[in-house]
Amino acid sequence: MALLRTDRPPARGGQHFVMTDKNIALVGLPGGGKSTVGRQLAKRLKRTFIDSDTVIEQRIGCSIRSFFEREGEAAFRDIESAVIADHCGDQAAVLATGGGAVLRELNRKNLRAGCQVIYLRSTPDELFRRLRHDTQRPLLQVKDPLGRLRDMYGERDPLYREVAHFVVDTGRPSVPSLVNMLLMQLELAGVIDPASVPSSVVVPPEGV
Fold it and tell me: Residue 6: pLDDT above 90?
C-alpha cells in the first residue's frame, strides 16, 4: 500500500503545516471502501460523516437502483451533482462520494476546490472479489461484471487522479490500518492538526 501526495502545501518553519477545515472527500470505484473508511476516518477526527449516495436516496425517496432503472443515469447524475455541490463547502466533514461522481467536470472542480480529496485506488480484480455477490449497484448488474469493472477503471482512474490531492493503493490492509495510514499522512502533510486526533505521528523539531 502506498499513499502519494499529488501537491505540497507551502513550508512553514521547515514543516508542512497548513491546517484546514475543508471537507475530506473520498473518491474511487464502487466497492473501494469509501463509505467504510470514511465513516471510521470521520469518527477518529470527530467530524460529521456524509455519504453522498445516502443523501441522494433521502432526496429521491427510493433506492438508487430503482431510480436508475426508472429515470436513467443522466437524471441520477443531475441529483448527484447537486448533492456534491451542497457538501463541498468549508464545513469540517468527511464526504464519501459515489464511484461515478468524477465523470462530470463540475463535480471534479467542486471537489478539488472545496475538499482535500483522497483517491482510494483498488484494482478491478480486487473489487470483483468484494462485489461479485452485490445486487444493489446498478452499473454492475451485467453479464460480465469483471469486464465492466475493468472498463470503468480504464475510464475513471485518470479522472480520480485528476481530482485527488492524495492517492492511496488500498491493497489488502484492514480498515483500521488503512485509517491509521491516512491519518498519519494527513498529519505529516499538514492537512489536519496532530493535536486533534490520537496518533503515533511525531513531527521532528525544526532543524532535525
Answer: no
